[in-house]
Write a structure and sequence with these properties.
It is built from 18 helices and twelve strands. The protein is an alpha+beta fold. It folds into two domains: about 300 residues, no CATH class; about 140 residues, PknH-like extracellular domain (Protein Transport Mog1p, Chain A).
């Protein structure tokens, strides 16, 4: 699956993320409220776009009136920057351009910047894989949904390619905007100190071939920024900031997000929720120095994010999957080859497009938890009418493989009904709406094959080591 959209998350702060942060900090705020003095915010924001540039040398100075931003807004931004620098312990190394955009301008920018090279064909291929996995309905318009979702959810972002900061120019620079700015400015510090695009390899090209790594590093980056914004709110928010955030939490609605497929809602928040837990574990062990060290030795799998105790030593096991294009014929091509990871393994089981085959949440987590490594491939004919999906996974122990295989069987029974074969580590279904399906276990390895015809599935099995007929 193309993870371009997932990579974009590292530069976005969504409104629901602010709600997540609000849930974390409101309890602590109630405890601290009686012991802290607050001042009101300075000025509401103009409804026209503005641009300001902050140099590294000006980090300890207020923005000059000639910067282009309303002076009191620029002053607030400068103050927040200094507060975030003090919390995080990182410093600016180069200039920063700050842009204020109206909601309409920000929406246009997102569409033009982030979706210009995500074609309708790319989205169709992604939706084919996701529908094969039971996560999306066949024919789901994935690109349009992403466009609608990101237009609804974005509150501001830092662009690690252009090095520009964008903050939405709403009715005022209140608690929501100030908290967003604290989060996004932390992305500036991350980028200037660790180089997100090149140093951390969070770019489209790399993330197309190693989505697990990019999902893990995105979780580190977002967990870092959520933790920073939470600490900023507890230490530096004004009384009005708190009122604004409470009001936002009570009034906020997100109809597009609420209508999203179940897996997407979970996946959209993964870097924020589990990333926060991961970073908090690092902070508990060694403070912000431990977080800084993680950028030099980043997590490489969603397994490490979900189970911080497995970081950094428990690394994924490489799993070979042969090239099946030659066997399939000239009209076939490989559309996707990547790693599913523990997180998506869980999503496949627990967050299917239908409640009929959405398995118990805790059992799904348990079944996915012994993940050791995997590789999947997806092939299709030029007209996309014929397909082959093969997914091989390896598990930490024989017991883990057994749990996963048993859950795979239960999932298959719920999705495809009574199998034609269910013995000796082989479960198979014929003539389903998804084609021919077989699930097989060989020691610590488990294989899923889903194909449009019996011949395609049988030919694939002969090519995959340890699973031949």
């Amino acid at each position: 699956m193309n993870k371009k959209i997932g990579v974009t998350l590292l530069v976005l702060i969504i409104s629901s993320c602010v709600l997540l942060s609000a849930g974390v900090i409101i309890g602590a705020y109630l405890l601290l409220k009686a012991h802290k003095n607050y001042t009101d915010p300075l000025l509401t924001l103009r409804n026209t776009p503005a641009v300001a540039t902050v140099t590294a040398a000006q980090q300890t100075q207020a923005a000059a009136p000639s910067d282009g931003l309303p002076p009191k807004i620029a002053k607030q931004m400068d103050e927040i920057q200094q507060q975030v620098i003090a919390i995080r312990g990182l410093h600016m190394t180069t200039d920063l351009k700050r842009d204020l955009l109206t909601p309409e301008e920000l929406q246009d920018k997102v569409i033009n910047d982030f979706f210009a090279d995500y074609s309708d064909e790319d989205a169709l291929k992604d939706s084919k894989v996701l529908s094969t996995l039971g996560l999306l309905d066949e024919g789901f318009d994935l690109k349009q949904f992403y466009l609608d979702l990101y237009s609804e959810q974005i509150a501001g972002y830092y662009d690690s390619e252009t090095k520009d900061m964008y903050v939405i120019a709403g009715e005022g620079f209140g608690g929501m905007e100030r908290m967003t700015y604290a989060h996004e400015f932390n992305h500036v510090l991350q980028d200037q100190n660790y180089d997100l695009e090149n140093g951390m390899k969070l770019n489209d090209d790399y993330c197309k071939v190693d989505t697990e790594y990019c999902a893990a590093v995105s979780a580190l980056i977002e967990g870092d920024s959520v933790s920073t914004e939470n600490e900023w709110f507890l230490k530096h928010s004004t009384r009005q900031d708190q009122k604004d955030l409470f009001s936002f939490q009570e009034e906020y609605t997100s109809p597009v997000y609420d209508s999203a497929p179940a897996y997407m809602k979970e996946d959209f928040l993964f870097p924020y929720t589990f990333g926060l837990d991961f970073v908090q574990q690092l902070i508990n062990q060694g403070g912000w120095a431990a977080v800084d060290a993680a950028y030099a030795n980043p997590p490489v799998s969603t397994e490490q994010i979900l189970h911080p105790e497995k970081y950094p030593d428990d690394r994924p096991v490489p799993v070979e999957m042969p090239d099946l294009a030659g066997m399939l014929g000239d009209d076939w091509s490989e559309l996707d080859r990547n790693v599913m990871g523990e997180w998506y393994t869980y999503l496949v089981f627990a967050k299917g497009r239908s409640s009929q085959f959405s398995m118990d949440d805790e059992k799904s987590k348990t079944a996915a938890a012994g993940w050791g490594g995997d590789t999947y491939v997806y092939y299709a004919t030029a007209d996309l009418k014929e397909h082959l999906f093969a997914w091989r996974s390896t598990w930490d122990t024989s017991s883990d493989a057994g749990e996963y295989f048993d859950m795979s069987r239960d999932y298959g029974l719920a999705r495809w009904g009574i199998p034609v074969q269910n013995s000796n580590g082989v479960i198979s279904w014929n003539s389903t709406s998804d084609g021919i399906i077989t699930m097989r276990r060989s020691g610590p390895d488990v294989l899923w094959v889903i194909g449009s015809s019996k011949e395609v599935v049988e030919d694939a099995l002969t090519e995959i080591k340890d699973f031949g007929k």
